Amino acid sequence: MEHTPCWIWYPGDFELRHSLKLHARRQERDYYRLAIWPVYDCWHSVRFFRRAELTAPEGLTVLARGKGNVGVDGKLYPFGKEIHLSAGTHEIVVEVFREDRLPCLYVEKGSLSGTEGWTAQPFAGEKLPVGFSPLFTLPEQDPEVFPFVYEKLQPVEVIQDERGTLYDFGRETFARVFLEMENQPELTVCFGESETEVRAVSDCPLIETVPAGTASIQFPARAFRYVFVPGQAKLCLRVEYERTPLKRRGRFSCSDRLLTDIWNTAAYTFELNSREFFLDGIKRDRWVWSGDAYQSYFVSRFLYMDADICHRTMWALRGKDPLLQHLNSIVDYSLYWLLSIREDYQTYGDLDFVRAIWPRLRSLTDFCLERTNEEGFLIGREEDWVFMDWADMDKDGPLCAEQMLFIRALEAAADCSSLAGQDGSRYAVHAEMLSKNLDRFFYDEEKGAYIDTYASGRRNVTRHANIFAILYDFADESKRASIVRNVLDNDGVPAITTPYFKFFELWANCKLGRVEKMLDQVRDYWGGMLALGATTIWERWNSIRPDGSFNPANMNSLNHYAYGSIGNWLYTKLCGLEILEPGYKKFALRPQFIKGITHAELTYESVYGKIAIAWRCEGGKITVDATIPANTTAELTLPEQTETLTLGSGSYRYEYATETSLKIDRYSLETPLRVIMEHPVAQAIFRQYAPEFLENPMLEYVKDEPITALLAYGESMRPLFEQVLTVMNQADKR
Known about the structure:
- Helix 6 runs antiparallel to helix 7 (351-369), helix 6 crosses helix 8 and helix 7 packs across helix 8 (400-419).
- The protein folds into five domains: 7-132, Galactose-binding domain-like (Jelly Rolls); 149-243, Jelly Rolls, CATH 2.60.120; 319-495, Glycosyltransferase; 577-657, Maltose phosphorylase, domain 3 (Sandwich); 673-733, no CATH class.
- The strands form eight sheets. Strands 15, 16, 17, 18, 19, 20 and 21 form a seven-stranded antiparallel beta sheet that branches.
- The protein is of the alpha+beta class.
- The longest helix is centred in the middle third of the chain and has 20 residues, at 400-419.
- It starts with 6 loop residues before the first strand and ends with a helix.
C-alpha cells in the first residue's frame, strides 16, 4: 500500500485555526468587524496515536510544528531523530504542544507516513481519526500558513485627472497591492468594486492611509476592481491576484450565449470566493455563512469536485462542543449544515469524513431537538435568529418553512448516523412525527397553500414554505397544483427578491418540470446583472443602478459566491447529469430540449474520472455524445426516446433523425414596435402596403410598446404585422 506523507492534526483543528485568523482580518477603515457568533480556536495540546505492526525493520522520523516528543513502547525520542523499529508490534504516542498555533506532525517516509491508522486526542476530547489536507504534503510547509498562489495583474486602464489617479483592473479581483513612492506626503488609497465607490473617498469602506515619507508598503489582499489615489501622487503600483490552488474540473457551454456567459461569470465569482473556506462576499462579509455555504457545495460539485474545501468549510462552521447557539446564530443555518453532510456523501462517497464529523453532527442534532415546543416543532429562543430570507414573513411561533427544513435535516442526520455505524433512529422517528403534523398545523385549504405560522392567527402566505413543500415532497399532486396556481404563479404573493432564495425557487421550478420558466428567470435576473456590466454575481439584483452608479444601500456587494449557484440547474437540466449512487458511481444523463437552445455540452471530472455529454439538435438530426469513466455505470435517456440505456465505461455516439426544430424566431408579436420599424425589410413592406401607417404621428408615442399592445386597440393590422414578422425572420436566417 502506498503511503503519501502529509501533515496531520486533530480533526477540525486546522479549520478552526484558520477560521479564527479569517475573522481577525476583516477590517473596514480603522476598525474591525467582529463575528456575531462564537469563534473557536484549535486545541493547543494534542496526542497522536499509532499502533504499528511491522513485518520488517523500519526507520521512523517524526517532524512536528510545536514542542513535544515521540514515544515508542514507552521510550521517548526527540522530533527529527530517526528511530529504528524492529519487526513486530509497536505502540507510538506523539505529544505536540503549540502555545499559539496549530499543533501538527509529519512522518517523513515508510509505512507509518500519511494518515492511515493515526488517531488524535486532545487532553479533553474524543479520540478520532486525524485530520489532513492534500494541500500540505511537504515537510517544509507549515499548516499555519495557507498555501495561496499569486498571479501578477495589470490595470486595463489608468485615468489621471485633477482629482487623482484611477486604476481599473477590468473586473473584480482579490489581490494584494504593493506601492513604491519617493518623498511623498501622506497618501490616501481607496479600494472598491465600483468607480462611484472609490471616488467617494469619505464614504469608501476600504481605505488605507500611507504615512508621509513611506518608501514602500504592502496592503493585505482584499476585493476590488478599482484603486483610486486622490491627489497628484507619483508612485509605482504592483498588484498580485491571490487565489486558492483549485483546479477547474467542470465546463459548460450551450448555443445560448447569454446562459454560457452567466455560467462563466458565476464560475469566476465562485473562484474568487473559494479561499480557506467558501466565503460570503469577499469585499464586505468575508465570513463563512452556513446557508450560503449549503448552496456553494452544489457549485463546487460541478465546478471543482474538491472535497477538501467543502470539508474545511463544514468543520469551520460547526465549531466545538458544547454548542452555545445555532450556527451563525441562525436556526435554519444549523439545519442546512446537517443537510450538507448527507449531500457531501452523495457527492464524494467519503465514509471517513462522515465518521469523523459524526460526533459534532450528533451534538448539533441533539441541540436542535432540545429547542422544540410541545408539538415537537423547532422554535427560535433568546439570541436565536429565525432568518429563512430577507422577506416580510410572519415569524410569530414555529415557522413552517423551518419545520420542513428540520424534518429533512433530521432524516439526513439519521442517514449519516447509519453511515457512521451509529444509532440515529430517534431522529428518524421525530421526523416522521413532524411530517404527519405538518399539514394539520400549516396547510390552509381555503388559501390552497402553506401558511408561514399558525401561532399568530394571521394565516399569512409567502413563497418560501410552498417552495420547500414542492422541493422536499411535502405536497402531493393535488397540493402541488394548488401551490403553483395560488402561490408560484400568483403575482399577489410577494416575489422572491434575493438571489439567495432564488436558488430554491429555480430548483422547485425544475422539479415541477418547468425548466423553460427556470431559464427565463435566470436570463432575466442574472442576465440583467450582466446587462448592467456585472463581471461577477451581485448580492442584489439592483446593486448597480440603471445609470451606472453604485447603490449605496446596506448589504450591497458585487461579488457573492452562492448567488452563482444557478449553474447547478444548467448542468442538471440542460445536460441532465444527476447522481444516482454516491461519488457518481452510478449517474444519470437525461438531457432536456428547450426551445431556443440547439446544443449544449458539459465535461466533468468525478472521483472516478471524466464524465462528458454533448447534444445537438439541428438540421433534422439529433446527435448525442457521451463519455462514461471506468468503474461506473450511467443511465442515458436520449431526447425523444423512451428507452433508457445502461452504459458502462467508454465513449458513445448516437445519431438519429428528428422533425423537431429548437430554433426560435427572433421577432414576434412581443417585439417592440421600434425594433420592427428599424428593420429595412419591414420598412419596405410598410411603404408598399401601408404607407399611411408610417406617417401616423402617434407612432412616436408607442414605439416602445410590443405589437400585442397595439393590437389590443384593433385587430385590423394583425395580418400585415404577421407577414412582416415572417419575412423579417426569414431574412435574418439567410
